[in-house]
Amino acid sequence: MAWWWPLLLELLTVMPTWAGDELLNICMNAKHHKRVPGPEDKLYEECIPWKDNACCTLTTSWEAHLDVSPLYNFSLFHCGLLMPGCRKHFIQAICFYECSPNLGPWIRPVGSLGWEEAPSGQGERVVNAPLCQEDCEEWWEDCRMSYTCKSNWRGGWDWSQGKNRCPKGAQCLPFSHYFPTPADLCEKTWSNSFKASPERRNSGRCLQKWFEPAQGNPNVAVAHLFASSAPSWELSYTLMVCSVFLLFLS
After folding, report:
1. Percentage above 70 pLDDT, the chain
2. Please, which residues have CB within 8 angstroms of residue 119's CB and are 6 or more apart in sequence?
3. Mean pLDDT, to the nearest integer, of 190-219?
4. DSSP per residue over the chain, as a string?
5. Is 46 exposed, middle or buried (0-12, 13-18, 19+ CB in 10 A)?
6. What is the pTM (predicted TM-score) of this model?
7. Using an 8 Å Cβ cutoff, are 134 and 119 in contact?
8. How far apart are CA 40 and CA 100, in angstroms?
9. How confident is the model at residue 250 (pLDDT cuts 50, 70, 90)?
10. Other C-beta atoms within 10 Å of 79: how many?
11. Do residues 199 and 135 lie in contact, with contact meaning Cβ atoms separated by under 8 Å?
12. pLDDT one-digit tens code per residue, 34-90
């Protein structure tokens, strides 16, 4: 047996523990996120659930609620006013994305998927975070009669006047036209930041984009589960490089 096999086996043994630790209770490297999560004296309305341990500040939580948010100069009202329930779901999703310290297992470097460019200040993003079935269904039900002109909101807008406007030729139609199913809404709106999970709330296997603060954060246990089941991309890459190097030495 080659001398390096015991070393490689030891790496395989300890790597999941390293990965699990580094994927928990972290903030992504993004424009509006804090470097590390921590308590906030106050957060605004739909962002309150993360008050005890947040990746967002009070200012970020307030800006998430504005009709044209300074976070990304993005208007939810590009096809007129949204139904109140629909608007609430989007604000909750923004708070979840900006404030949650439990998205570590789904954080990836922007551009790592090969089809996107990094916005200024945005080093990382979330990919395929599994939202609970009820989250997607309720979001879709409350938005299906509101109007939009695109299915992918991460790009392709007309920014000529400083905020997003529908691109030329795009029609404002009910959400149900661009998002025929709850899964379409959850997954397509922000280019697969979220994934529609078949799991239900309180299963311990899906994330809730909002929760009652008094009942505790259910996403902590979900992050632990997913962090322990798969190594992070950084450590997987490191192991691959080490393996190739050891093969070369042999």
Report:
1. 78
2. 31, 110
3. 95
4. --TTHHHHHHHHHHHHHHHHHHTSS---S-TT--SS-B--S---GGGGGGTTSBSS-HHHHHHTTSSEETTTTEETTBTBPPPHHHHHHHHHHHHHHHH-S--GGGEEETTTTSS--PPTT--EEE--EEE-HHHHHHHHHHHTTSEES-S-TTS--B-TTSS-BPPTT---EEHHHH--SHHHHHHHTTTTSEEE-S--TTSSSSB-S---GGG--THHHHHHHHHHHS--HHHHHHHHHHHHHHHHH-
5. buried
6. 0.81
7. no
8. 12
9. low
10. 20
11. no
12. 999 999 999 999 999 999 999 999 999 999 999 888 888 899 999 998 999 999 999
Q: Whose structure tokens read 């322990």?
A: 228
Structure tokens at 115: 């089809």
Residue 230 has pLDDT above 60, yes or no: no
Q: How confident is the model at residue 5 (pLDDT cuts 50, 70, 90)?
A: very low
User: Residue 86: what residue type?
Assistant: C
Task: Give the 3-state DSSP-derived string for 62-111, with helices as H, strands as E and coil as C.
Answer: HHCCCCEECCCCEECCECECCCHHHHHHHHHHHHHHHHCCCCHHHEEECC
Mean pLDDT in residue range 175-180:
96
Q: Left (φ > 0), alpha (ψ -120 to 50) or beta: where does 202 sit?
A: left
CA angle 219/196/112 to nearest 5° reads 85
